[in-house]
Amino acid sequence: MKNKRFIxxxxxxxxxxxxxxxxxxxxxxxxxxxxxAPDHTRVVLDMSGESVYRVRVLDNPHRIAIDIPGxxxxxxxxxxxxxxxxxxxxxxxxxxxxxxVVFDLPRKTDYSDFALKPNRSHPYRIVFDxxxxxxxxxxxVKRDRIEEIVSxxxxxxxxxxxxxxxxxxxxxxxxxxxKDVVLDICFLLKRYIEKKPDYHAxxxxxxxxxxxxxxxxxIAREHQGxxxxxxxxxxxxxxxxxxxxxxxxxxxxxxxxxxxxVAERENVLHDLERESRTLNNxxxxxxxxxxxxxxxxxxxxxxxxxxxxISGSRNIPPRGVKQANFVVLRSISMPSILVETAYLSNAxxxxxxxxxxxxxxxARNIAEGIFRYFEAYPPSARDVAVSSYFSHxxxxxxxxxxxxxxxxxxxxxxxxxxDFSRNTxxxxxxxxxxxxxxx
Length: 439
Ligand SMILES: [Zn+2]
Fold this sequence. Notes:
Elements: H1 2-14, E1 28-36, E2 40-47, E3 54-58, E4 63-69, E5 72-73, E6 80-81, E7 89-95, E8 98-104, E9 111-116, E10 124-131, H2 136-151, E11 155-161, H3 178-194, E12 199-203, H4 213-222, E13 227-234, E14 244-249, H5 257-268, H6 275-278, H7 281-290, H8 295-310, E15 318-324, H9 327-330, E16 336-343, H10 347-353, H11 356-376, E17 387-393, H12 400-406, H13 411-418, E18 431-438
Parallel strand pairs: 1-5, 11-12, 11-13, 13-16, 14-15
Antiparallel strand pairs: 1-2, 2-10, 3-4, 4-8, 6-7, 7-8, 9-10, 14-16, 17-18
Helix pairs in contact: 3-11, 8-11, 12-13
The structure holds zinc ion.
């Protein structure tokens, strides 16, 4: 009898059943979190292992129910109120078949869901994005606001605080998260930019929520930005490494090994988005073509000016201007840089980053660099621009909404671009316009 049990155990180990697959009874929902963005609400279920789940949309009252067979809720997982107009409340039910999560909705809404495998900093996750339906009036107000900025004749600086929401970016051992530090620096930067009457600043996010890379690019394009400044904070396994770096895009490779590593880290974080798996080759090619203009030349100058200004700090030493292939910079047709303000893995850098006056100093000097760049190279006139379109080839299973989401458009903009109604049927292989770019 003893021998028999031993053989069964051996068999289980040799099949990998013990080590690699979470058995049904030990599958746990460890945490449920939500973030409210202006255009959607994201809910992430942190799972102890890979899971199969089923989603049902129910009416009367409106709700979305997620069944995860064989799972249970870890202690501490409780229902909670979201109350953001997209989700009223998130409830949990312990059913005989497993755990069930229910989103109570004030009204019916489109959603998308996907599962993610664990990476260096995150466990297995199931992610839900629920769309915020804007009223026609809200859409109009948004459009008018953009129109007002575009027609003001002011120089438009797009400020891009890295990460956000379910993606914290780099985390320090000293309790500081990249997404929070950079958001604060960006608010300060916006204030400095807008102190000048002929400048306007637009932020790609203004709170703790995740913004996909296409949405960031779309915001930059919608507002016809004159430059794009992405703000980050770095980390490295060697705790002694510290300082600030300014990057611009390279299509041929990184300027050194460290630059390559930074690009890999910032790019990997985009695995939170499905778009990386489904990006259409044609679109990618067109996006790459765009950057073959003089934009790279201008970006390198902008990087030099900003680096020059932030080099004056005796607190956070400058590490210079570098080149690397950053996804977020890759498809932007305006001078674009990425500033790694300091290292969150270094105790001294963290000490300075925690100080409000240091963040303020960084923001003021990034702004100075931008002002000096535009004094030397004023943006070219916009009124001679000609429009052209980029297209997307519809894949099986895609809907107008999922395509709009992928490219960071709202559904009505996508419909307008294509002269579609919301009920237009699309079919696999069809080419549809996804956005307009000024040449
Ligand atoms: Zn970052």
